[in-house]
UniProtKB/TrEMBL annotation:
Keyword Cell wall biogenesis/degradation carried by entry: no
Protein's name according to its UniProt entry: MerR family transcriptional regulator
MF annotations from Gene Ontology: DNA binding; DNA-binding transcription factor activity
Keywords: DNA-binding
Cross-referenced Pfam families: MerR, MerR_1
Amino acid sequence: MGSDSARGGRLRSVDLARAAGISTQQVRNYEEAGVLPPAARTESGYRTFTPRHRAALLLYRCLVPGFGLVAAQRMMRALHEGDVTQVLALVDEGHAAQHQQRCSLRAASEALTAVARQAPEETARPRTTLRIGELAHQLGVRPSALRVWEAAGLLVPRREPDTGYRRFGPAEIRDARLVALLRQSRYPLPQIRPVLDGLRRTGSTEALRAALARREEELTATTRAMLEGAGQLHAYLREYGPGTGPGPGTGA
């Protein structure tokens, strides 16, 4: 803090870089991206920053783990424009998306017990097999999604000898339901493959339950990061929000 006082609260790029553990080039990139308020310039053209710039930088770095790069950048730009309503709306959007993922995860966990316990014969509809359009309609997805899942090795439908049309039997219908549930919970296709392989090989749902548990841990970590980011945002608004002091280029 002594060096800050010696310059009347003025900071250099290197001071911000050291505070955040990043390079001076990243500081310049953040300013150009609108993450930082516009910096004042000396007569020789060098950027000069203030404690507000440092606070904005640390806030952004705290927001990213919970809300992501894009949302955090949008929040910071709205902050510097004085649009607090937009900032809070973005916070709400982040929490709403997180809640939706938790609901999808819970639904996948509950459905797993019911679907995986059923024998293939029990999962079948009155018709023995379904065509791709019929199955897509049941799952609420596009037929193209089923083709992508097939290309990834997640589904192995039979083909009609004469027409070459896909036919999904009871086992494939069960697999498609599980894939749809996991995709709703944002699981990437490469992570679904070993889960389905284990279910087909042993009939056990342990691998899938472990995957769901890992996803829940990830969501919990993200929620904690969102809470920390929201706390830092609240502190920043109290100190530097609209009507609390001079403009961004003039001081804290």
